[in-house]
Protein 1
Amino acid sequence: MMQIILDECVEEIRTRRASIGDCLARYPEYADELAPLLETAIALENLPDVRPSKAFKLKTRVKIAEWSAHPQARRRALLPRFSFARLAAILVVILGLTSGGAYAADSLPGSPLYPIKRGAEQVQLWSTADQESQARVYMMFAERRLAETKALTRQADSNALVEQTMTEYREAVAAVGSAAPTTSKPTSLTNELTDRLTRQQEDLKSLEKKVSDRELEKSLNAVDKVKDILKKN
Amino acid sequence: MVDDERALVTRAARGDSQAFAGLYDRFVEKIYKYVYYRVGTVVQAEELTSQVFLKAWESIRGYRWTERPFAAWLYRIAHNLVIDYFRTHRPLVSIDELPLSDENLVDLDDVVQQHSDADMLRKAITHLTDDQQQVIVLKFLEGYSTEEIARMMGKDAGAIRALQHRALAALQKMLAGREERV
């Protein structure tokens, strides 16, 4: 019985439907035992709100993107995709010796050569070891995604691809913030990255009316957030 | 909301990392809070939260949608990782590591007092039994109802009420003991 009364009082107090006094008055025979338990429950309710840092959330978000292409993570599920990525990488090497490599580099989402371009990017990322270089590589990916978005907006019936490419743009921007090394004061790298992000903001603004307001706002906010992270670094 | 969640889970189970990222965005704060209040340090909470989502990504292909919420599956992974963590570590707690959201940083004196009280309570939570910790965190820190917690933990509501009662009594006793010593 006590457990039911306690649960009822806890629920009512948590949802502001009753006070401790109300509960104790309703169940005077249990008041001595209830009072300290309800005080403890309120203390628990008042514990400070704990949230993960923005930097951690971004870092893990980037990790998720990496897991999807990583052979050790989720091996079975990703086997076809990873095999394709490998195949794409091999094709890039072959195509790199021919004029076709340059052709793939100019390809847009939805085109047959586009997966080769993305495969080459994965290879480039895997071969980049230090944080500074990684931040620059992610920045280059972000610039590419933005250029692709601009090109796609000039094509008919490309709304879905534009939206997808803008999402990938934001992921690349977030990855820049995560990869940039932490420093106590601005460095040539953080200045360079901030300048490049500022230029991207200008480019994004030029897409007004060509992409949805929501996508544009989310992308501008993503850039702002990463600029903040770079500033705080 | 549930349909939307189900669609994300279905896509993630097919290997769609963007859908999984959507699930991550939806649950990361809850899982982090759950882990944080059980291990007591930011560093370990971040490490374990990251592991929870890696483990979820590795296993989501075998996930089957049931009456139990998807969150229950994530909490189960988090719970198992916390248990593994305590097999090899002892809980470490420090006032300095208690993170506050920006809006809580109002007055320094208030914050110091809040840190002190909260730290004592947080330490006490880590001394509860495993099931009691789960109930306290899910109820008072995550805001789930008794019935929801019962579904998540695969127990009936009566068992959750009993755990809640014993947990609150144990916490009250620990805190009273600390105050008497002070």
Note: The interface with chain B takes residues 2-4, 6-7, 10-11, 14, 36-37, 39-41, 43-45, 47-53, 56-57, 60-61, 63-65, 67-68, 73-74, 76-78, 81, 167 of chain A (CB under 8 Å).
Protein 2
Amino acid sequence: MSTTPSSGSLGNLAQSARSGQLRTARVIMFIVGGLNIALNAFGFFTAARIVDEAIQVEVDRAQQQGMVIDPSELSEVRTRAISLTQVFSGVGLAVGVAFIVLGLFVYQIPVAATVTALVLYVGMYALVGYFDPSQLYRGLIIKILIVVGLFKSIQAAIAYRQEQG
Amino acid sequence: MRTDSAGGSFECPGQPSGLACNLSAEAVDPMSFAEDSQTIAPPGEDSHRLCWRCRLPVDIQAPHCPHCAAPFRTPPVEEGRQTLSPVPLLVAYVVLLFVNLLQVAALRWGAVQSLDAEQLARNILAQTALLELINTILVVVVYFQTRGALPPTGSNLLRAAFSAIWGVGGLIALLVVNMAYHSWLQSMLGTTEILVPWNSDWQRSVALVALVCVQPAVIEELFFRRMVLDGLRSAMSWHAAIWISALMFTFAHLGVPLSLPYLWLLGAFLGYVRVLSGCLWLPIVLHFLHNLVVLVLERGL
């Protein structure tokens, strides 16, 4: 009778730790996806109000400088801005849904799900930073923690997949 | 000599010419294998697997089937060669993404600072050249760090020539989609992109072709279709690796945010060309042609 743990039980322990890391990845994906869906759904349905407020600020500033606003041009700009806001909110909503779906499939396709989540997260972060650079440093520590968590999940997913065969 | 289902015959690999193949009926039963290439063990050796498409035995080291040219999802790992983990490539990608973000910020700053169109064009070209140089250095450094672990490309001329034919057809179809998509965008949102005129003098035209067509075609294909795609395919299926590397390629083009959905399609197309042709020069040529056509269409001859 052996008194030392067999390599099988050690393997099970390691696999259990990887499984725990994948569970963390799933939680991250669900939280990021849920927040994306909530914020972008709000943006999509209140696009007209958001655009009107932004336009009003610009119009006030322009009038203070003595500029004259052409109402027909303003109306055209408003329509385009609303379309653009809705397009981007729609894309954000789709990305949120994608995070949820990736979270659901994290045990079936661990490497593909975690790598896609990381690429989507970093890519969307850079894209938002392109439009609004102030977003780059807002909540930076949480964003770094999410990226580190996803990187660790990818490493765990690769090991998990190799163990599964 | 065995006869396949189509009535043709083939020599059994590993056996002298004319000798019968000694694979048992059980070993070649399609139901006993998954869809991907599976290793089978002819008696006495462990060096063959069945092709997932034609079900004929293939050397385990072959990157594609010599009978039907089907690529294998999981490339064999050479003895002594380490497998390429996607993690360092993803770290390099995150760095590249931030270099691109810097590039976009620099271009915007240049646009604000420049008062006349000529100065603006010069600023855009100079900043693009500088940041493309940084991208190039970064990709070349990562390539030399990882090339020992990269699987061989494994192409042959016939396969590449066949891929080139459908690749050019696919490229034309994609360019039509590109024009339709951007016409629709323009009608919906109008255009705000600043274009550097390319026919003002020949030096600027050469610089534009180098910066818009040559550098992206070579460096992006080397990074996304060679390093990233091959790194990912060691850990997942071909299709997943192609679409994920295409997604990474998409986000690397932050300067044209409205074109991102189209760029995902283009990235996937180039990924399939890379996988099915087995070579890297074909996606490089197609990428170059794509960018050249877009450049000419945007700025006129």
Note: Chain B touches chain A through 29 residues (CB under 8 Å).
